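hi! just following up on the protien thing from before. the input was this:
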Amino acid sequence: MQALFIFNGAPYGDERTYNGLRLAGALAKRDNNQVRIFLMGDAAIAAKGGQKVPEGFYNTQTMLGRIIRAAPGSVGVCGACMDARGMKAEELMEGAHRGTLDELANWSEWAEHVFVF
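and the predicted 3d structure came back as:
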């Protein structure tokens, strides 16, 4: 299965991103599945490197890292959304890249299933 996950919400304070990443991670672990993630709006911060969260709390950087290890190049971050939040490409976690709307359009055509959180 080819699955695209599009995230829009903040990575912390709301469990939608957390739950979507849990599902994406579960699908990515299964044989014959390919998962790609595109982060838009406030979700762009989910791929910021160097996250430090309270002990026992989930970490979106760690969760995304598992997916990136399974499929390098699979996490794109909206460039316009990064700019609006003052994020630079060098602030992204290892393996995530600055993406474009054209890339999201291509990934949408590639995907058999699109999940939006």
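The first helix runs from residue 15 to 29.
The chain has a mean pLDDT of 96.
cheers
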